[in-house]
């Protein structure tokens, strides 16, 4: 099972629940591996607005009604 023993953010928990990997997020959102890792594992990480838009576009392919406020502290 994915995510056992790892600290996960809201985005990390979301992709784990839906069976996706950080690499899948990288490809779908067109972001770097380091950025995806920080977004998925650091609950207090605050990415740039352009990165949030890319991540939310990828998330909305899975959950069309998802809001950025559900995943990021804004």
TrEMBL record:
InterPro entries: Cro/C1-type_HTH, Lambda_DNA-bd_dom_sf. It comes from the Bacteria. Residues 17-60 form the HTH cro/C1-type domain. GO terms for molecular function: DNA binding. CDD domains: HTH_XRE. SUPFAM superfamilies: lambda repressor-like DNA-binding domains. This is Helix-turn-helix domain-containing protein. It comes from Metabacillus arenae.
């Amino acid at each position: 099972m994915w995510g056992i023993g790892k600290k996960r953010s809201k985005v990390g928990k979301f992709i784990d629940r839906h069976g996706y990997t950080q690499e899948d997020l990288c490809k779908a959102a067109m972001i770097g591996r380091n950025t995806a890792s920080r977004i998925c594992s650091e609950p207090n990480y605050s990415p740039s607005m352009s990165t949030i838009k890319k991540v939310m576009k990828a998330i909305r392919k899975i959950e069309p009604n998802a809001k950025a406020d559900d995943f990021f502290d804004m």
